[in-house]
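quick one before i forget lol
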Amino acid sequence: MFGFGKKKSPPPRELNDAVRKLLAEHGDNGSAARHVVHYVYPSKKDKPSPRSQVKAELEALGFKVRNAAMDGGLIFEHHVPVAEDGFDELTEQLEEWLDGMSWGNDGWEAALSAGEPK
C-alpha cells in the first residue's frame, strides 16, 4: 500500500523541538526539571488495549496517571528536564509502545521554568 490518505505524524523529536522552541522564546532553555504532562488516547480505527492495562503499565513505569476528561484517554505526568537526549529517547519509546497498544500520543506540555539560565 502507498499510504494515501494516511496522515503520518512528525517524529517525537521533531515535536519535542517545536515545544522547546516555544519555551526558548520565553527565555526557558528546558534544562531544569519541570512538571511534564502527556496526553494519550485510544485509536478509533484499531482495537486498542484496555485503558486499565495502559494505565497500569504507565504507573509501573513510575508515571502518575489519571483519566482524561474526554474520549477515554489518559493523562500521565512526571518531573524531568525536556532539553536532554533522554527526554527524546523516552518520548520515542513511548510513541512506539503506545502504537503497539493502538493508542495515540497527543503530545505533552510543560510550564515555563522560572529562574532558569538563558
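fyi The helical segments are 12-24, 51-60, 85-100.
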